[in-house]
């Protein structure tokens, strides 16, 4: 679905972000034929480079201390590009003997990282990078605050405008700026125009989650990862159940707290992933206990201690990070494959 | 400090909970000579049993499906006791050929798991367990809501009274009830009397965290685990920094949101663990980015990109779970040992 949305824009390259999936098997689906990818940690960069994905952007501001690790990957055949919004870091990149390509991070409204498209830092960093400058990059994390498709489309257009303004300034100053990279899953889905942009990054779309479904990035039933849990306690008089999936199994992410529907720590589904009456949620999460609160009477008669349920995640990136592998299901409950993940840093 | 608090009560055994540390090296300090321990997952039970800690309580409600795994550990020499608050699960325990010892979980006010000390379920579960009944167990997680030492002492006394009421009822019905086990770090620190209780469980005290410090379980400077992070971005005009430690490195736990001081996603310290002016916190946590917000001007002159800082955790159990090992420091920054952890389930 997201691939189709990106394909609406002629010439726009999808550079999937593997920070959510962190899995070679998923990368083979999202970036077939070892196409360009985005990573968020050195551990991901190494893991995917060793598997054959050479064209990478390591899309978290680089430190001088990490340049040697990136250089080692590139010396072994990878083409990892780093990003920075800092003049001193830019000088360290330019001074590194490995000749590492770097993108300048541009702030298009989120206010997290990046330089202003119109400010003096952009020119200073470009001058410091010199021939190492490979492009500009932005992330519209604030698209997650969009509450309608129109609002997300407007954020996408503002991101494009800001990033292009930066690219235009740099080109006017004589820099080539081959890469113009932006993205987030909502922007990828809802952008009206991507003219002037060379590539789109998105990651969570591969799995989806309750928060993205609330944003309209995908339908709720398209969520591809769930946590399999067992009933460990029953309180029919309160219409609650305890699961052996708590904060460590689900994460304490509360993204949906500000969404139209608040799913607590996750939506509880039956063992085959189908909705339960009243759509119960994990209302409280302790380290290893999740307390399920029903809105309609829970079907206690078919939920003895030991019964299996599934929990759809608020935020797939954080929930998946609790696991070192995926069990791939076909037709409900049959495990047809086990896919590894690369966690840590 | 907690050991000393427990030692105030004659005959009371400390049964450390390894759910926070999940490390043999820490267990060797907390439960020397392979003393009794508490665990929260089958993975911990296996890991510690293989290392020599035989006397364990697996303190999360058991399911019938997990009994074979516990039985296998016990057949290999361990003495893992399970817990339940469910009559059907109790019948499955009693029917298991391995003869697994089980404790009945009693609700002493938290309302998470456990049966009421005075209700019919207690007697029904005891009757179902028969000779498998090894004792009663409670957890006063609501002690975390105590806002004064007097409030926590009162919760401790209520927990003791409830658990003893259950033990007394069972003994009157002819059961032996050798183990009377309760606890939490605040209760262990602040209980006035532990008469009739045989053992105390506590875990987070081994490391401490910002939330426990706010509760008065330990002084703030006693927090033993921090996350080492690097500056990856600077915004002097906003008095913010970006760190390469975000939601995955710190967890999204917001325990201190309801505490007297809200530390966001963690307290930022200098590289040697000393406070910074105005005690800045990680105010926003993205997957791999943490945004530090100063309350006093941040010392930007000594914080270039690449500078190291430490983040003290809101909730040590959740932050530690992001890592597969500890780097043990002596005298500030020298790593003198690496201690492994057992994550997962």
Automatic annotation (TrEMBL), chains A, B:
Family named by the database record:
Belongs to the DSD1 family.
Stored SUPFAM superfamilies: PLP-binding barrel (SSF51419)
One of the entry's Gene Ontology molecular-function terms is:
D-serine ammonia-lyase activity
What parts of the sequence cross the membrane?
A: none
Q: Which UniProt keywords apply?
A: Lyase
Q: What GO biological process, any one, is recorded here?
A: D-serine catabolic process
Q: What is this protein called?
A: DSD1 family PLP-dependent enzyme
Every D-serine dehydratase-like domain range: 224-330
